[in-house]
TrEMBL record:
Belongs to the G-protein coupled receptor 1 family. Pfam families: 7tm_1. Gene3D superfamilies: Rhodopsin 7-helix transmembrane proteins. PROSITE patterns: G_PROTEIN_RECEP_F1_1, G_PROTEIN_RECEP_F1_2. It is found in: Cell membrane. CDD domains: 7tmA_Histamine_H4R. GO terms for cellular component: dendrite; plasma membrane; synapse. It comes from Monodelphis domestica. The keyword Secreted does not apply. GO terms for molecular function: histamine receptor activity; neurotransmitter receptor activity. The keyword Cell membrane applies. Keywords: Cell membrane, G-protein coupled receptor, Membrane, Receptor, Transducer, Transmembrane, Transmembrane helix. This is Histamine receptor H4.
Amino acid sequence: SDNIMPFNQGTLVILSILMAFLAFSIVLGNGLVIIAFVVDKNLRLRSNFFFLNLAISDFFVGAICIPLYIPYETQGRWDAGNKLCVFWLVIDYLLCTTSVYNIVLISYDRYQSVCNAISYRNKPSSISRTATFMVAVWVLAFMVHGPAILSGSKDQTEKTECRNQLLFTDYYIITTSILEFLIPTILVTYFNYCIYWSLHSRSRVRGSLVSTPNISSSVQGNSMTCAFFPMVRLPKPDEEVPSSSVKKIRKKSLFASFRTREEEETASAELTSLSHSNSVPIVLRAQHELLRDRKIAKSLAIILGAFVFCWAPYILFTIIRFACNQRRDNSWYTFTFWLQWFNSFLNPFLYPLCHKRFRIAFMKIFCKKKHTASTQVSLFTQGQCRKI
């Protein structure tokens, strides 16, 4: 077959080592995410289930797709039979597309948590609803390539070659490029834009809150004006105040304090999505949530950049090969082909491994003995202190 570039023996050994290392790294990184999710119950939140779904798809990229392709890449021919070839094609396209759709799902979930914080926080995290989203990602990903590959497998004439024969049909190239790359890129970009716009608006609101003191009092004659309380007339030192007036002032101030607290809670609900404590000032809570959401926006921007970097070259070269009717794989096309799989290596570092909850879970896994010993020492010290 002429679809694989010939290499000398030394180059083949180096390439085999690099490809095996990539597969091992993908399995290791995503496997750690899966193990952490199983071991630590604190990770079983709605958004983290989507991380798990992504890790599962990327895990099997390193466990199935790359190991089956290494002999084909190094030997230049497919000797595993037509059935295994069809299986490999379906699984490879399924897993890669599922990984892309999981990125969209995670971005959508982060968009909801930032831009629709109130409804996102109050909406019950139903396991069935989360599972429906996870399964839908796999079903949609299969529908993009699966039926077409299975129907076109009958036209697989060359037993020494394993490729998707529909890559040279115009309707297939256009449809899959739109469904697999263009629409996901537009959606993730849109979610990023909405998040950044929300953060920009909230930054302006927070700036106005900080510039206005919480309680600014000024004495003008016999009156005191407060930011959160209505104007109250203070009696003169020698002025007698009727008891009925005192009761009215107390009732009015008490009503104002309750009304202010309700207004504060409403404002904090619009500005924050996690903190429920009314003892923390609204400005501090808003600032805390703003910093958290900025980290989310930054991570989504990195996600979008990594996705476009890993997928855009392959889509571009696939279209060029179709336009030029080039059936032979040159070195640049092979590089972009592997770049897709490299995205499965990056994903564990772009998602769970950069989140505090997952880092704590990894510390529990790898430093279990040390963590247990430090906990016992801490309890012993507290007991001695109580005795003293």
